Amino acid sequence: MITITNIKRVGSEKTESVTIEGGLIKGWNLPEEGDIIDGQGGTVAPALIELHAHLREPGQTEKEDLASGLAAAAAGGYGTVVSMPNTSPVVDDPAIVRSLIEKASGLGFARLRPAAALTKGQKGEELAELTYLKEAGAAMFTDDGRTNENARTLRLGLETAGSLGMVISVHAEDASLRADGVMNEGPVSEALGLPGNPAAAEAARVARDIEIVAGLHAQGVPARLHIQHLSTARALDLVRAAKAQGLPVTCEVCPHHLTLTDEALRSFDAIYKVAPPLRTQADADHLLKGLKDGSVDCLATDHAPHTRAEKERDLLDAPSGIAYIELAFPLMYTRFAETLGLERILELMTAAPARVMGWAQPTLDAGAKADLVILDLSTERPVNPAEFRSKAKFTPWAGETLKGWPVLTVVDGKVAYQRA
Known about the structure:
The chain is an alpha/beta fold. It has helices at 66-75, 94-105, 130-136, 151-163, 175-178, 187-192, 199-218, 233-244, 255-259, 281-293, 308-311, 328-340, 342-349, 351-357, and strands at 2-9, 16-21, 24-28, 35-38, 43-46, 48-53, 78-83, 111-114, 141-142, 168-170, 183-184, 196-197, 225-227, 249-253, 298-299, 372-376, 381-382, 401-402, 405-411, 414-418.
């Protein structure tokens, strides 16, 4: 049993306590029992939910592993993490799904909900055994890390996943248009003499996938498509139009596409190389507007750790990805609290991803699962990558002063992270 004292609920200045027993919230403001933890005057919220993280296990543990990745997630306030399947081997076997869940459950950090590959080996040709993968505990199906070039295979996948009540998430880029682009195609790429990845690569693929969903929807097929890491204004407008038609299409946006632009690549530092690439300020502003008006469904980090040696290569050879699951909430809160408001930011990182997945809505009511985070919304602290739980101890935001840092994360009624 745990009692957390000296905390406040969102929108209230009243100091309260919450008692947790048997993995559930026993009640509020009860007589103190069990281990007493001081919440340091922080604000309590449901633990965050991450729908898009690369934890690199199995086979790439020099970059990250379940222990480091899930510890980092808990330090970032996350209670649940959906891991991507582009590992070595690919997560396309029910036995791998079961082993990941079993290993993660004994670590005591954030909860793992592994995504499984949509196609065998993520080759985009033959569907994986989706029914068995679901039975093993797969949370969603995706070939993230690769793009789905075969439209017929994606259509068959959407049909099958729909019959299973599962979501398919996609990395929406046309590979032939993207080609060898390493950054956004535009004036900055031209000035730097670097191959560009045009916004049309994303928009064209989003348009194609929406058309597939529209055709299935007209036939009564319950397909659900989730578009990952949307980065362009044009693609968001396509999603907005699809939603207006009542199509079951959702999308996520990542904080790095909101807070960084292609101007950062003038440094020639591969720490800013991501896929899809950092776009223009106009794109970032449009995505922020989508977060405000509901066109964007949720926030996700696309936490993608690499070794420092890999990210120190030149822009043509370095892998894409930024790892920052530990500072996603402080970054969003510091940059956008005035624009979006605390409640909207929390919704985008808790209730909204749960809706995308069709999961129960997180709540702090008595009797609910005890997944919660205590946030210090007032104390400013600089970003110190050396303190990261992730193996990727470097970040574009190093040294930036942020507030909104987690003080305590509780998962299934147990302390998964406590700030020293």
